[in-house]
Amino acid sequence: MRMTDLIVKKRDGESLSKKEIRFIIKGYVQGDIPDYQMSAWAMAVYFRGMSLEETAELTLAMANSGDQLDLSTIGGRFVDKHSTGGVGDKATLLIGPMVAACGVPVAKMSGRGLGHTGGTIDKLSSIPGFRVELTQEEFLTQVKKIGLSVIAQTGNLVPADKKLYALRDVTGTVSSIPLIASSVMSKKIAAGAQGIVLDVKYGSGAFMKTVEDARILARTMVDIGKALGRQTIAVLSNMNQPLGRAVGNSLEVLEVADALQGKGPDDLMKVCLELGAWMLVAGDSVPNVGAGKKCLLHSIESGAAWNKFLAFITEQGGDAQAVIDRSLKVTPWNLPILAHQSGYVQPFDAQKVGILAMTLGAGRTTKDSPIDLGTGVLLVKKAGEWVEAGEPLLQLYGSDKEKLAEGLLLAKDLVSVGNEAPELPSLIEEVIQ
Q1: Using an 8 Å Cβ cutoff, are 334 and 373 in contact?
Q2: I want to staple 66 with a disulfide (CB 3.0 to 4.6 A). Which of 98, 159, 188, 412 is the partner?
Q3: What backbone phi and psi angles, to 5 degrees, belong to 430?
């Protein structure tokens, strides 16, 4: 079997066999297939696509390319949640304690962000002392003890995806639906998930800009899950506006703390209740979504979710008191953006908010770029809300005066105010099972 022949086969629109796909992934991970051949194959997939059978086999081959996590020793049914990413998306930090408080264990591996703001691991790193890297034994022991742990992805989990994604990133093949779907699903399967809930976002602040593209991606991942024997549910959610009011690492952790104590923004709570309820359904904890939402709301009202969050921080070495006291590091360099007139805040571009946050220091442009965890944007007023002239619309938190000045230029015309209240789209577009 020769890689050149397989590139030509896919280039000409033919389907690859299971044996051929396994040969490609194994050869690439072992270094027998060079980057230039894998790049040509990825471009052929980009233009020719893959069948469901091919995509499922690619997913399985990548999942089997390295370590796999065995969660069976803990007991219970494990459900993982994945978001395709967005601006202000701190949902994992809110959903995890709520779902765990409702009796479904959450054992999650997450990544660091590349782009507008940090990922879940970056956000957790803003808590003093918090350990994002645990041994597998420590990870499983903590889940047994309190039902919740979130750690950085281990070094040898799905190495095929690490290599292939880095290659796609520099060869213009990132947006291939089969390659996106297999990338996401291979990590969930290798991490031991029996049920998978996907938050597939669309809009200006999301990777998929249209609901049509998001629906195709969601359907592909759900079909892969079904083909591989994993219950998979996809929720299409709107990311034309940032989720919640905080965009930035420490700022988002503080917003999660408020939400777990019953003071969360309506949009953040709606999306998290939807996703969390489906996780409870997939975890066989509740009979339907309505019952799931009731359980999640009760976990907040009773204080169970908040206490679970504090226990989670403490177990992983973090300073829970710093979260309670709201003493997480937030840069002293901050600046309000004021409304020039009274009226209703009009919808603004989520992607531009993300770029603003990254400019202030909250995100990274390369995988090795540093992040200032105390920077970001606070959306004092969101679309549809009334603001008086002279009141703040945004609060900018920059890592230094120069970045704050640069952020001010970007924020100057970001938010507009009008006389009419805007019609806001639904946050949840569709659920695909």
Answers
A1: no
A2: 159
A3: -170, 155
d(CA 46, CA 57): 17
Could you count the other beta carbons within 10 Å of the beta carbon of residue 210?
Answer: 11
Helix (H) / strand (E) containing 232: strand 231-238
- pLDDT of 226 higher than 90: yes
User: CB-based contacts of 40: which residues, under 8 Å, 6+ apart?
Assistant: 7, 11
**Cα–Cα–Cα angle for 155, 196, 27, nearest 5°?**
40
DSSP secondary structure letter of residue 84: -
What's residue 75's pLDDT? 76
Radius of gyration of the chain (CA): 22
- Put simply, whether the predicted model's pTM sits higher than 0.70 gets the answer yes
d(C-alpha 93, C-alpha 126), whole Å: 13
Write out the two tokens for 277.
């309820």
- What element of type H or E holds 425? none
The answer to whether the CB of 197 falls within 8 A of the CB of 184 is no
Q: 291-300 long-range CB contacts below 8 Å, 24 or more apart? A: 292/102, 295/102, 296/98, 296/99, 296/102, 296/272, 297/273, 299/97, 299/98, 299/101, 299/102, 300/98, 300/259, 300/260, 300/261, 300/262
Domains and CATH numbers, the chain: 3-49 (1.20.970.10), 79-324 (3.40.1030.10), 334-418 (3.90.1170.30)
Cα dihedral value 252, 254, 259, 261, nearest 10:
170
DSSP 293-331: HHHHHHHHHTSHHHHHHHHHHHHTT--HHHHHTT-S---
Dump pLDDT digits (tens) for 375-410: 999 999 999 999 999 999 999 999 889 999 999 999
Average pLDDT rounded to a whole number, residues 145-164: 88
Residue 343: strand pairing partners: 387
Q: Which of 152, 136, 135, 159 is nearest to 64 (CA)?
A: 159
Dihedral Cα 154, 247, 374, 301, nearest 10 deg? -80
Given CA atoms 255, 258, 260, 264 in this order, what sign does their dihedral have? negative
Q: Is-contact 394 252, C-beta < 8 A?
A: no
CB atoms within 10 A of CB 169: 12
Given pLDDT bands bounded at 50, 70 and 90, which one contains residue 336?
Answer: very high
290-314 pLDDT tens trace: 999 999 999 999 999 999 999 999 9
Active site residues: 82, 161, 168, 183, 187
